[in-house]
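Entries read chain and fold; for instance:
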Amino acid sequence: MSNTSGIMTRERFAGCTTFDEYVSRMKVNKDTMLQYTAEVEVSPEDVEWWRNQGKLNVLTLTYDGCGDALYNVPVMAKIAQQCPNVDLRVVQRDENLDVMDAHLNQGLFRSVPCFIFYDEGFNEIANLKERAASMTQVIEQEMLRVRRRVREENKVPWRAELARELRNVVATRKKYP
């Protein structure tokens, strides 16, 4: 968990856009965000669990064009809609880089969505970056399969293009006196 003490205050959180306000301002993917939110079903067991967690303040860092946000933010939005104790705010990552940089994925990446959970006193209690770890594993395994297939299917032109690129790189080499 990141140490964001002092970064997020009650006043700053209160000034952040609600999910509905965020969606109303979206420039791209607005209809898809609304559709996916309508489609999400939260189990009665999950709703009960969330309702029993006490007051939770959830800040979500994202941007309109993020594919993971389209799949993940609607889940948190639906939870917040069904659980009055969950106050969800959704903000643009690039307008909140101080918070984002305190929550870098693997210490390097400004991955979104980033869900940051605060208790009633605005102490950070948890965060989730980008997507569920199990889904990252599924995506990475599939990407590896695709890369291997594409390389094999295109190995002759791939090698020819690399030979040209290697030649071009050396042809533009630095000349020393």
Observations:
- The chain is about 50% helix and 15% strand.
- The mean pLDDT is 90.
